[in-house]
Structure formats: C-alpha cells, structure tokens
UniProtKB/TrEMBL annotation:
Name of protein: 4a-hydroxytetrahydrobiopterin dehydratase
NCBIfam families with a match to the protein in the record: PRK00823.1-2
Family: Belongs to the pterin-4-alpha-carbinolamine dehydratase family.
EC class name: lyase
Assigned keywords, A-Z: Lyase
InterPro entries xref list: PCD_sf, Pterin_deHydtase
Reactions accelerated catalytically: (4aS,6R)-4a-hydroxy-L-erythro-5,6,7,8-tetrahydrobiopterin = (6R)-L-erythro-6,7-dihydrobiopterin + H2O
GO MF terms, alphabetically ordered: 4-alpha-hydroxytetrahydrobiopterin dehydratase activity
Pfam families assigned: Pterin_4a (PF01329)
Amino acid sequence: MAFDPERKMTDGDVQDLKPDGWWGGEGTLFRDVTFESYGEGVEFAVQVAALAEAQNHHPDITIHYRRVKLSYFTHDAGGVTMADIEGARAVNGLIEALGQGDQNSTDQNKGAAAG
C-alpha cells in the first residue's frame, strides 16, 4: 500500500479511542503485560502473532524476560490508525480471556521504569 497520511489519527483521537491499558506517544500505541514466567510471556506473544495474522495488521512484539511490550504503528500512514486501535482492542480481549486483567499491565510511568 502506498504512503497515505490521511489515515493517521490525531494524538487527541488516539487518546480518546485507545483501549484501557494502552498509552500513545510519538505516533505509536503501546502496552506492557507482565507474566509469571518467561514461558507464559512467549506463549502470549505467539497468540498475539496469531491475532495479528488474522487481522493482517502486525504490532511490534518485544519480550523482556516476563514482560511483553506491544506497539502498534501503521507505517504507510506514518502513525496510529483505526487498524491499530482495533488491534489493541483484540489484544485486550486476549488478555481478558487469559485472565491477566489490569493487575499485570503497566501504565506509561511503570512501563518506563520496568526492566
């Protein structure tokens, strides 16, 4: 797909529409999820990858021991689009189905300090 900045959402729209547990900054949507073990985090990442394949929209996935960081960014739009919001919502559904809930998610301040 050709570069299409018209699909890029404003920062205000991203803040209004982002699902619980996600934060936005510099045109990207982020979420950290912490698990009891490295293996659980890897399994979660694989499930997120399967969701992404089904949606044909793929987040960056980074595994830091027990913490999995997800970031959505639509490259051909140069920022966050509705496809990113929809992907984040689908991930939240997966998190809820796994029983992770908000107790294992970090907000922007905690996420920046987590290691």
